[in-house]
Design a protein that fits this description.
The structure is a single chain. With 202 residues, this protein is an alpha+beta fold. The protein contains 3 helices and 9 strands, in the order αββαββββαβββ. Strands 2-7-4-5-6-3-8-1-9 form a 9-stranded antiparallel β-sheet, with helices on one face. The longest helix is centred in the first third of the chain and has 15 residues. The two termini are 43 Å apart.
């Protein structure tokens, strides 16, 4: 009985001790997505994000400190509602208002006509980045605008080829980003040269 009382007392004392907090670095994936419908002129999908959108979607604590945001990739899904589309292909371009005249990602997608048309709705079409310099510039803009309380807007433009060819259906654009943030957690008892540890909390 004495041993049980001793263990209970020890557990209570240990749980009542204030744990030391440390800043720890985490990386989480943030995805923005938006759906749009094709018209006779193609498709134009736009999405604006802010820091609050990131905090809310990732369910970050109020103490969390966002340090960096980087675009990983851009993906488009296409749901065609025609067995015999007039368009031969679709030219997809993703723009960011940080550099509105130059796309960050693009891809031209061939559409096979006839009964053997490919079912694009089951595919995720990855758009290729224009250049590392362009992505670096957009990532810098993401950090400058979003982290300082502004916003940033993405546009997916899909043009049918030949121009004016009618295409019936929908597209959804997904922009995947890595969000690096620091958060205060109970300091682990043992860690050796872990670069996620960023020092004590203030």
């Amino acid at each position: 009985m004495k041993n049980i009382l001793f263990l209970l007392t020890l557990l209570i004392l240990m749980s009542s001790c204030e744990k030391e907090l440390a800043k720890w670095e985490f990386v989480n994936n943030f995805i923005i997505n938006e759906r749009g419908e094709y018209t006779s002129t193609g498709i134009n999908i736009h999405k604006t994000i802010t820091k609050n959108d990131i905090v809310s979607k990732l369910k970050l604590k109020s103490s969390a400190e966002i340090r960096d945001i980087k675009i990983k990739d851009a993906i488009v899904t296409i749901d065609l509602l025609q067995d015999f589309p007039q368009a031969d292909s679709i030219k997809l371009e993703l723009y960011c208002d940080a550099i509105p005249l130059i796309p960050t990602h693009k891809k031209t997608l061939a559409i096979k006509k006839g009964v053997t048309s490919k079912d694009f709705s089951k595919e995720k079409i990855k758009l290729g980045p224009i250049s590392l310099e362009t992505i670096s510039f957009v990532n810098q803009a993401l950090n400058n605008l979003v982290l300082k309380g502004g916003s940033i807007k993405f546009n997916l433009i899909g043009r049918t080829i030949p121009s004016g060819a009618i295409l019936t259906g929908f597209s959804t654009v997904y922009v995947n980003m890595d969000v690096v943030y620091w958060e205060c957690i109970s300091k682990p008892e043992y860690f050796i040269f872990d670069n996620r540890h960023k020092g004590p909390c203030n």
